[in-house]
Amino acid sequence: MSSEHLDSDRVISILDRVFAGHNKPMGLHEPYFPGKEWDYVKECLDTRWVSSAGRFIERLEVDLADYLGVKRVVAVVNGTAGLHIALKLSGVETNDEVIVPSATFVATANAVAHCGAIPHFADIEPKTLGIDAARLGEYLRDATDIRDGKCFNRNTGRCIKAVVPMHTFGHPVDIEGVLEVCQRYNLIMIEDAAESIGSMYKGKQTGTFGKAGIFSFNGNKTITTGGGGAIATNDEKFANFARHITTTAKMPHPWEYRHDMVAYNYRMPNINAALGVAQLEQLDTFLKLKRSLAERYAKEFKNVSGLIFFTEPESTKSNYWLNTLVLNNEQSNMRDVLIKRGMESGYSMRPLWLPLHTLKMYQTCPRMDLNVAENLSMRLINIPSSVFLGKGHS
Ligand SMILES: *Cc1c(COP(=O)(O)O)cnc(C)c1O
Fold first, then answer.
1. 195 CA: nearest ligand 1 atom
2. 244 CA distance to ligand 1 centroid (A)?
3. Neighbour count for residue 51 (Cβ, 10 Å)
4. Sheet holding 316-317, edge to edge
């Protein structure tokens, strides 16, 4: 056996040492409620303000806008709904195309499909796990024409309207590179920051670079509202419209039900927002814990042959939402062996999502060459990453 062989016993014994005394089985990312969650949710029950109106919804919007340094935040029922609305308000319509990475959670492409549009898949780069801006630029140069200021796919004849970069596992994508490509090809950028709350690119929060950024507060994300999401933007009009269309387009009136367009019931309920306000109060503490777990992992896996621990890209600060091992190319056949060993030993592990262009509903979608996404999908393994696992490492 070569010295490069990946020893799954060694990986498990590292986890046993790092997590001695912890309860098992442990999930990949479990929620954590050590703050005012209990008080705020109780207040909702006591006052019976549990639904689509109440003080916590607006407070979450204001507090999150403040945290991110954007003008406005609109709270919604989940991240997918946020993406759907952000794309719709960007003018994405039936038969348009929207560029999304192939290596992302299925929601990114689903939101495009919910607009009646077609996902157009872009490849990722190994150092960020996000869209490869340089290769996307070259691809668009060869595959599109600009007419009347609009970008057309030369093959399908359809208009490409937007790009949705995603910050994989919290690691910031080359957002300036993607933005530059968007400017060159007249594409709107909507950031899928569902996984990257609190992550920074050159000192600026992810989710604040494009026309709008969306966040998810699903139960497995860094902070959670049970289910929930948010749209962040510096465009007041965009925010007002987002607020209107996510609340059934009801016109303000003391008693009359007057709605001025076909709209959605996408408002985050107060009881969920109550959780969110409490979680956001602790975000900076959570981020420190997550960083300390990632640093411990980095140290422990430093000299393990056959894999590396993925660390934040240059000039960025990741929230380390999901910690990730990258197996060497020759070790990809060990991926499922290791995941199975992990699960049997009480440690949740997951591979990267199947590349979306391989899913049956998206197989016929346009795409650039996707060999990096295909290759990395065989080699990545997420390992336990809950916030509370960060305690006691420094
Ligand atoms: C979690 C997630 C979403 C959407 O989240 P929901 O709140 O579950 O709808 C979107 N994109 C990515 C990349 C995600 O990880």
1. 15
2. 22
3. 13
4. 204-205, 200-201, 316-317
| pLDDT value at residue 188 | 98
- Token digits of residue 16: 């046993």
Specify whether the CB–CB gap between 210 and 189 falls below 8 A.
yes
Q: Is 194 in the pocket of ligand 1 (CB under 6 A)?
A: yes
Q: Kindly report, residue by residue over 71-120, the tens digit of the pLDDT.
A: 999 999 999 999 999 999 999 999 999 999 999 999 999 999 999 999 99
Point out the residues of the chain with pLDDT beneath 50: 1-2
Is residue 101 within 8 Å of residue 375, measured between CB atoms?
Answer: no
Residue ranges, comma separated, of all CATH 3.90.1150.10 domains in the chain are 3-31+283-390
CATH architecture observed for domain 3-31+283-390: Alpha-Beta Complex (3.90)
Ligand 1 touching residue 119 (CB < 6 A): no
Query: Which 3 state secondary structure label does DSSP give 327?
Result: strand
CA 164 – CA 209 distance, rounded (Å): 11
Side chain identity, residue 289: L
Radius of gyration for the alpha carbons in the chain, expressed in angstroms and rounded: 21
Whether the pTM exceeds 0.90: the reply is yes
